[in-house]
Amino acid sequence: MTLSVIISMALFALAASISPGPVNLVSLSSSARYGAKKGLIFVTGVTFGFIALFLFIGFSLHYLIAQLAWITGVLQWLGIAFLLYLSYQLFIDDGGLTADAKQNAPTFMTGVIMQWLNPKAWLASLSGIAAYSPGAQGRKDLNWLLLQVYIYLFVGYHLAVGFG
């Protein structure tokens, strides 16, 4: 593995971590409403949820997609449609925050579950695994997958902690 591959993976993880999506919006919103400590609890759950999702996709769904290649095209178009929908929602939003005392801050488990329901996380996992896994079998697959998880954890979580 070369340094250029590791840098490329890190840049991919950075782009996936900071691009607009539902989890980033909830993280920003909860940090603004409830403070950085509550926001970091949610971000930690999001990180663990993404790692679990990434490993699940890497060990199981990746092989299904290898058998049914047409699914990737469908997922790409669904992802494009979803990101356009989010962009439109951001465009029409007035930016106002409501301070509702009855609402609770998102929890660690909310973050874990939200990643599994997040289409952006599924697309980032699928495309990251497809782009950076060399197609080797056995232990090499595990090593590549764990390296990708480590790079995401380092870049994504430390970026959130640094700016949270």
UniProtKB/TrEMBL annotation:
It is a multi-pass membrane protein. The chain crosses the membrane at residues 39-61, 68-88, 144-163. It is found in: Cell membrane. Keywords: Cell membrane, Membrane, Transmembrane, Transmembrane helix. Pfam families: LysE (PF01810). This is LysE family translocator.
